[in-house]
Design goal:
- By secondary structure, the protein is an alpha/beta fold.
- The chain has a single domain, classed as Rossmann fold, CATH 3.40.50.
- It is 51% helix and 14% strand.
- It contains twelve helices and nine strands.
- The protein has a five-stranded parallel sheet, sandwiched between helices.
- A hairpin with a 2-residue loop joins strand 3 and strand 4.
- Helix 2 crosses helix 3.
- The longest helix is centred in the last third of the chain and has 24 residues.
- The protein is globular and about 55 Å long.
Length: 261
């Protein structure tokens, strides 16, 4: 058991787990997710958080190693209205969407009050450093102990691990290598790093650094983030095709039991 932010204890497995197309997603509110993260920090490392969206669920369906990492993670909050929709259709209800880009900011607000030390890894050259400066500006008290772009290539692993270790004690590690590379990288190296909280955040660094436009609230409330991304980043159109496949697979999964009946 680990302590939560109120001093009580929670079981690491005490999360309502859902299954979307054979892939684990946890049913969590924001308060529950942040409370469990507080518990991980209080307990010490290592813990891994995965934030799946429909694209990651499709990738995990094709990659057993990735699916196993998600199944073994300490927390798997829903990052995408598409997963919440699928949960409703498949009788796997998910109460809230917890986007990775917003998770960074909410964790930073809490971390600043505790003078946490973070390391930011991944994204294009210079982006992690931009994110670090922006977080420190917004949340004085937070320490960015190090930033590095690097890559998930095995030949770079040792130098990256040494860089993180030399930065001193780290409370939170964010890795922006894209999925599934970032999740596999964390799972592979957390036994050595033993950082209390490690999270793969994909393109979230670009949002925090202001390099990608953040969707307005009305877009999020109406489940139109996919359309906003397509209009503001039209080069992503191939990735958006995956959403159509996800929808089709969810509908087929819903119809499956009825057909059998």
């Amino acid at each position: 058991m680990i302590p939560d932010s109120r001093g009580a204890t929670i079981e690491a497995s005490d999360v309502d787990r859902r299954e979307i197309l054979g892939v684990r997603v946890d049913d969590l509110t924001w308060d529950e997710a942040l409370g469990r993260i507080d518990g991980f920090l209080a307990a010490g490392g290592p813990h891994q958080i995965v934030t799946p969206n429909p694209e990651l669920v499709l990738a995990a369906g094709r990659d057993p190693a990735f699916r196993a990492v998600i199944a073994a993670a300490d927390l798997v909050p829903c990052d995408g209205v598409g997963l919440r929709w699928a949960g409703r259709l498949l009788d796997q209800p998910i109460r809230e969407v917890i986007p990775g880009s917003e998770l960074i900011l909410r964790m930073a607000e809490r971390g600043a009050a505790r003078a946490e030390r973070w390391f930011l890894l991944g994204a294009a050259e210079g982006v992690a450093a931009e994110v670090g400066r922006e977080l420190v500006r917004r949340y004085p008290g937070l320490t960015i102990a190090g930033t590095h772009s690097g890559s998930p290539r095995p030949e770079e692993a040792e130098s990256i691990l040494a860089r993180i270790e030399s930065a001193g004690p780290i409370d939170v590690l964010f890795v922006a290598y894209g999925s599934p590379a970032q999740e596999l990288w964390i799972a592979s190296h957390q036994p050595r790093l033993r950082i209390p909280v490690a999270v793969g955040v994909g393109g979230a660094f670009n949002f925090v650094a202001g390099r990608s436009r953040r969707p307005p609230d009305w877009v999020k409330q109406n489940g139109l983030i996919w359309l906003f991304r397509l209009l503001t980043e039209p080069w992503r159109w191939r990735r958006q095709l995956g959403l159509a496949r996800f929808v089709a697979l969810v509908v087929l999964a819903r119809l499956g039991p009825r057909r059998a009946a």
